Description:
Layout (H helix, E strand, L loop, with lengths): L2 E7 L4 E2 L4 E10 L2 E11 L20 E7 L1 H7 L13 E7 L6 E7 L4 E3 L4
Parallel strand pairs: 1-7
Antiparallel strand pairs: 1-2, 3-4, 3-5, 5-6, 7-8
Amino acid sequence: MGLSTHVLDTMHGTPAAGMAVALYTTEATPQGEVATLVKQLVLNTDGRNPDGPLLDNAGLHKGTYRLVFEVAAYFKARGVALPEPHFLNRVTLDFGVAQPEQHYHVPLLVSPWSYSTYRGS
């Protein structure tokens, strides 16, 4: 099952088609945290990765990950007038995978002023 995400634009009541997303692995080191880019993508008309899961079962490993969602750029592209500086520019979600044989779904519900997430199924 692997790792997946889905973004819903709660301001417009639609999937966040066109939002840019980046996936990283993260690791704590004595010098600080290191984030390694795994992939970048743009969400499709359903607010999902057009290629399916972000990581399949073979690619998902026990450890820590980061999803970065380009929220301000998405809303600006939709014609929303945003203040400078933006209240939300990027939403960064750091999460852990303890059981990589399970499906990890990380949805995001977002507006220019708020967001929520949870571990979905």
